[in-house]
User: Fold these one by one.
Assistant:
Number 1:
Amino acid sequence: MDEAFVEQCVLDLYKIEAIKFGSFTLKSGMQSPFYFDLRTVVSHPKIMETVAKLLWAARPSSTYDLVCGVAYTGLPIAAIMSLREDIPMLIRRKETKGYGTKKLVEGSYTKGQRCLMVEDVIVSGSSVYETVETLRELGLEVKDAVVFLDRQQGGAANLNATGINVVSVLGIIKLMSILYKHGCITSEVLESVKEFVSTHNETSIKTKDKASYKNGVLVKDRKHCTYESRVTTTDHPLASTLFELMSTKKTNLCVAADVTTSQELLALADKVGAHICLLKTHVDILQDFSQDTIDKLKALAEKHNFLLFEDRKFGDIGNTVAQQYGGGSHNIVEWAHLVTAHGLPGDGIIKGLMSAANGRTRGCVLVAQMSSEGTLTSQEYVQGCTKMAEKHTYFVVGMVSQSNVSSDPRFILFTPGVQLKKAGDTLGQQYVTPKAAVLERGADVIIVGRGITQAEDPAAAALIYKEEGYAAYLERIEQKLENPSAVGS
Ligand SMILES: O=c1ccn([C@@H]2O[C@H](COP(=O)(O)O)[C@@H](O)[C@H]2O)c(=O)[nH]1
């Protein structure tokens, strides 16, 4: 970029009062000793064209299919770029029209096209982020943004954390030094702006999904992703179904139906069905297990829209497990969407389960940790289970866990040993509250048994657990990431 050209442009902008000094209230409510108002350039076409040329020269890559200006000032600048470079442009409305096509984005595009964002000035980066989010939801690839002035208040870092690379023509300190050099401002004004920037260099933006970097690669942290967004992140159709129903039913509650008769099981499923995403069973506890029980259970799962989860905890070699899962007296593969299995035997167990599933849409949850006192699952064992899950994402939907064993949004963490009041039972069970399970232990799904089955009114108890569990999840996705470069809320 030609420095003299940039300097001249700054002086021109100063002359047309695009840069003002005093006391200004920003969109966020922050008081600022300066204000950069590039809207004024619409009355000065030559300066506007220079701004567009400088922005185009600053672009990080040479190949884009589209340009999109952030409303409003970015729009005419993007239009100039579009015309000069013969690249089609898009317009993202600030709000959807209530009539006609009701489209939020105007212009033609196809999924996968690369779009360059154009903005006049960034503070936190929230306006750029909002526009990018809309375009990404339409399937466009948006990785780069060019901005004329970076106020150096954390906007670039905030956008980087959401996968947007920001290049600015100049930062506020450089702009101020050009003005000072040319006698446009006093040293006091220069110092007051420097002081302001050094004490206001962090901002945050609200994002739908929080993201962080791992070895320089952008990864979305499971704990900060919405269930809704994970519908498409996962490789497994049942995990997608589960996320979908969790987000539409607003529940992360799985009831552990540890009852001994079919009548109790079916009555419980009907009572709590509206509040749950999964019904977990131990069918070998039932005294009167029959196909009729299963048929009725499947009908209730359809009626209330929940999945069936048999907590069989398979733990044998692949060949044996294939027979236990795909036959025997319970024929689990025929009716249970999900089953649990131990990682102990190695991944032959997954291959065995898959061979019995024989193309049916079924999934497995690996027991990585247990809630019981004295559990033998070491850190190494947990890592082994996680690796196994990563190798078989087309069959393993997640892990039974007591801590945040994976940040991969494809995996669902199921946490049992959840109760509102009790600390444990007399046989080694240990409890945590729904809030602690979700916020401290990273649970996506809370599993509650006796807290509901032994309540006077199981439906009312299920509603309480549902609300506690979901409120904790909502609190979690709003939380700040531990990563210091991450986006805050
Ligand atoms: O580590 C584990 C794994 C599975 N469970 C099962 O969850 C429920 C818990 O029932 P509560 O009545 O809420 O204690 C039960 O079916 C266990 O088999 C677990 O508790 N811990």
Note: The pocket of LLZGTKA7 is lined by residues 256, 258, 282, 311, 370-371, 400, 416-417, 429, 447-451 (CB under 6 Å).
Number 2:
Amino acid sequence: MGHPPIKRYFAAEQIRVAEEATGRLLADGVLMRRAASGLAGAVAAELRSRHGAVYGRAVTLVIGSGDNGGDALFAGAVLRRRGVAVSAVLTAPDRAHAAGLAAFRSAGGRVVDGVPDTAELVVDGVVGLRGTGPLREAAAAVFAQVRVPVVAVDVPSGVDADTGVVHDPSVRAEITVTFGARRIAHALAPAACGRVEVVDIGIDADGARVEMLSDRDVAEGWPLPGPASTKYTQGVVGVIAGSDRYPGAGILCSAGAVAATSGMVRYVGSAAATVVDHFPEVVVAPDLDGAGRVQAWVVGPGAGTDDAALELLRRVLATDVPVLVDADGLTVLAHHPELVVERHHPTLLTPHDGEFERLAGRSPGHDRLSAVRGLASALGATVLLKGKVTLVADPGGEVLVNDAGNSWAATAGAGDVLSGIAGALLAAGLSPRVAGAAAARVHALAADLAADGAPIGASELARAVRPAVRSLRAVR
Ligand SMILES: NC(=O)C1=CN([C@@H]2O[C@H](COP(=O)(O)OP(=O)(O)OC[C@H]3O[C@@H](n4cnc5c(N)ncnc54)[C@H](O)[C@@H]3O)[C@@H](O)[C@H]2O)[C@@H](O)CC1
Ligand SMILES: [K+]
């Protein structure tokens, strides 16, 4: 077995603590040499894969005022000795890392005023863990001219390591090479970071609170029928969605639930006849009294925001089974937050940005991590904030992240499918955080498979849920 499958992401302070725990290794510059050697190896590998060789290629470093630049300069010295033509632009010439600059110069590295036209790769060593705000003027002017791939040291400069906020301007990297453990920005700003490579420098970071399930985690945790399973033991999910006016939400939400697991789906609401037309396996009832037992409820998509909807939401949240609230249910909840605040059973809220704003009284803004944690803590419920990067936060601040990697699911009704999938997983016994993150992964994969390069509607996405689960299981 190699690395543990779950990916963990650390705050800058946690990395600092881990570095300090190495004592002399840090003080004597051993950590930095290890970091630089790993960085040089990654740059060399990239040159080889792009140009077939390392010797004779041309790389330019862009250097700031701290140890991030030190990493790049020491790596430049290593590359120079391997026959690479390495130059460096110093954006703060008086404050460049002194030992790194000396090593770079003595290896034959040249200091230049701007990135030469001959550069085939640029290394971003402007700022790392201590960066705040956007790229400053000198570095921004240099990167504005760069047309070749960028390898970022630790984090792309201008991207906040702890929040993943991508400031403007900032560096957009093809590859980010980091040290010892992943930073939170790597999960939250995947488009700016590109491919992330972790160099082992012999530190042990601890206590990650931001994590990402691997495909293997999702596949292994996905509920499948076993030898002793019955329709009941796999979890019955109740769907309260859609209405005469919006029957589609009931159909799509049921579609997600039916496809996700082999447990049973019950439907409650006025679109019952239409839902059964589409899915004869769904057991329907016109109202809650006739619904029968479930192991989890999904309530809200297209279900209306009137007094009857409020009453239904109140009754569902008063049960002791896990409840997922989405869409119209969230709008109702925004006026009655006490319904979840006072609830002591697993609860998953799945807002998009607009619904988040209704619930929280402000938009998630750029720092989505703090925003989602804040709302989860305030409401005492798990909150899944939708987006290309979906964040699922528990009230205690633990967060699972999912990067969809595509935007095909940005289509009407896709959210209804997501809540159906997540609801089925809740009914099967997954925790709200894992159910939300696993559903988001399969949903994104289903969108990608269904789209295959062309736009899709939510029905096609729902039909691809099974192929998506199958493909995750195939990579185990
Ligand atoms: N100390 C060590 O032994 C190790 C350090 N590491 C490297 O050291 C980095 C951290 O180094 P530092 O603590 O010196 O901090 P940085 O190199 O991240 O930042 C240095 C300075 O940049 C300035 N700055 C902040 N925001 C800026 C912006 N937007 N534009 C321009 N300048 C800005 C600040 O004045 C700050 O003092 C890590 O990211 C990593 O690359 C790694 O080599 C691992 C080992
Ligand atoms: K950097």
Note: The mean pLDDT is 96.
